[in-house]
Amino acid sequence: MKALRWAVPLLIFAVLIAFLWVGLGRDPREVPSPLIGKPAPSFALARLHDAEARLSSDELKGTVWLLNVWASWCVSCRVEHPLLMQLAESKVVPIYGLDYKDKPDAGRTWLAQNGNPYTASAVDLDGRVGIDYGVYGVPETFVVDKQGIVRYKQIGPITAEALKDKILPLVRELQR
Amino acid sequence: MTRARANVCAVFAMLALSAGAHGAKMDSPADLAFDARMRELESELRCLVCQNQTLADSNADLADDLRREVRTLARSGKSDDEIKAYLVQRYGDFVLYRPPVRRSTLLLWGGPFALLAGGALLWSVVLRRRQRLPDPTVVAGDDALERARRALDG
Fold first, then answer.
1. pTM of the complete model beyond 0.80
2. How many CA atoms are closer than 13 Å to the CA of A145, on its beta-carbon side?
3. What's the complex ipTM?
4. What one-character-per-residue DSSP string does A35-80 give?
5. Which among A101, A99, A95 has a CA at the least distance from the CA of A83?
6. Contact A127 B49 (CB under 8 A)
């Protein structure tokens, strides 16, 4: 009985500390996407570099592709941009861009200045497609498989670690 | 006129002006009811950019877009539940300030009641144990009181 007096509060304390410790390591800004494992929302938007033509998600069926949500006004997009350029050069997987709530002119200028890693970019002027994809913090990147299912979502800029440890292995596995 | 008084006057003038402006807009009862319904719905939805604000309170760009989306859906005849489902499908349960009862949220919903029950149990145990203790006033006999008095005086 005496031992219980000490053991019970100590146990409660330990559990509390464990919860707080785990909580400290979590990023509250990363909201798990309900889209993982579900079909990528379909879209058909004007292409950034050819407003007459459309980029439609249907024409990408059968390939593994990345959808990178970016904008010329987005500061952290500059952080991941060199990685995207490298990835595009390696030709491992096509990257499609979604120019999110951006003026097409500004978007084109931005790409001309910083380099264009995208196979093609679609213009999401009013952010409607962004809402369909649950975008809430640009940049975001989705990995979509051959069947058009979303398999991974990166919130915020792609990091070298995320690319090496998660995105590239996943892409290779999906391409098989 | 002091500065404070001038400020008060300015505030009243503004209030009067805004009241006038409001009155001038002809809002039909249906519009008002729709607005009230939207405000209530939006105050139950979380803005994903500033996460501790509701969609109704947030000034974030995305909140603006989502409010517009919610209103468009409502005008097209969607019910509140359908609108919530639409947002949950895209942003997950996190958009709801009142998360649904699921197995993963059972602790969240039931936890406080479990804690309350635990506290009540502990309380009743302590009370019962105290009742079994001898009465402290009886224990303090005459010589004990005398000793205490001496200690205080000394």
1. no
2. 17
3. 0.79
4. TTTSBPPP-EEEETTEEEEEEEGGGGTTS-EEEEEE-TT-SHHHHH
5. A95
6. no
